[in-house]
Amino acid sequence: MKGTILRLKNQAGLILIPIAPFSFDPSMHKPDHFPSQDTKWEQGIRWQTMLWQGKPLGLKFENIGTIGKPKIKLNVFSEDKLEKKYLEGLKEEINYRYDFNTDLTEFNQKFRDDKQLGPIIKKWPGMRIMSPQSLYEYLVIGIMLQNCTVGRSVNMMQILFEKYGKEVKFDGNKFFCFWEAKILLRTTEEQLRALKVGYRAKSLLRITEPFAKGEINEISLRKKDEEEQRETLISLYGVGPATVGYILFDVFKHYAELRHISPWEQKIYSKLFFDKDPENPVPVKKLLKHFEKYGNYKQLAVHYIWEDLWWKRKNEHIPWLEKLIRV
DNA sequence: CATCAGGGCCCTG
DNA sequence: CAGGGCCCTGAT
Question: How far, in Å, CA of A97 to CA of A39, rounded?
Fold first, then answer.
């Protein structure tokens, strides 16, 4: 809650070994994600808060390996000393969320000669997809992305963090940590609307319920097949094909999940893959057909090319892209 | 000033 | 299956 800052003074050190090859920076920082107060990145280091089994944590990942011999030093900051068993579970969870245990050898071999994808694979061998949040947290973010500008999403998340999250300090930085789903059960739609989330208030409450009541268990949902996961997600009020698509890929790591392209993505893809004027975009059907060549790695392939564009944007001005991003 | 579309989704007909 | 409405914000 606002006002009190939790100081996460206790530290525990862990070593993580992603399966080689592994490129740290493009895996641990995604420039297309909107900035939020739960994370920070600089070359070779990522800070991130995490709520795990009810405990707010501060994570500091440092790259101490190479692409061929990956190694990450992870400092876990917490209020109290953490038990060995807790840390073991945490390590497993982090390996899952950050996709460290995935072997991308086949992907690399299959597409290293692809005209567009090949050079990016060579530049960033073993780049992972990343979802530092839990499923519930990702759903909240997904709802806050809908039908608004980036700036508005940023504001709404900030207000929610201030109202329901916890402010924490670790490693000399202040961050916010996500709230537990059950916290929002005490809230009404009117109270949420007062925070200017608009009609999303209803969705927020409706997605919160099954998590707070334990009707959806993320860990067991991971073991279900993709179609069952899709049905569980789409049945949630306020969750449609766009949000489900992101989650099946980012959270459940289905590299082939690509069946929905939203209008803003369509415009960017038209320029990126067909060099066509975004104002006169290539039909979605045609885009999807183009991606067929990437088979079971469709969305992963698009992710590589997409991230490459956003990294370029950090260093150079890309006028056509700026026009399509409403900040 | 007013108007409008947006990094979707739900609901209606 | 197409299209209107939704909260708010910033662009025009």
Answer: 15
